[in-house]
Amino acid sequence: MKTSPYFDVCGYKVTSERLHHKESLIQAVVEVRIGHECVRRSATGVGPVHALDNALRACLAKEFPELDDQRLSDYRVTVVDGTDATAAQVKVLITSTDGRDTWDAGCISENIIEASFEALCSSTIMGIMRARSARQTVLS
Question: Measuring CA to CA, how many Å separate 82 from each of 11, 89, 94, 105, 118?
Answer without folding.
Answer: 29, 8, 21, 22, 22
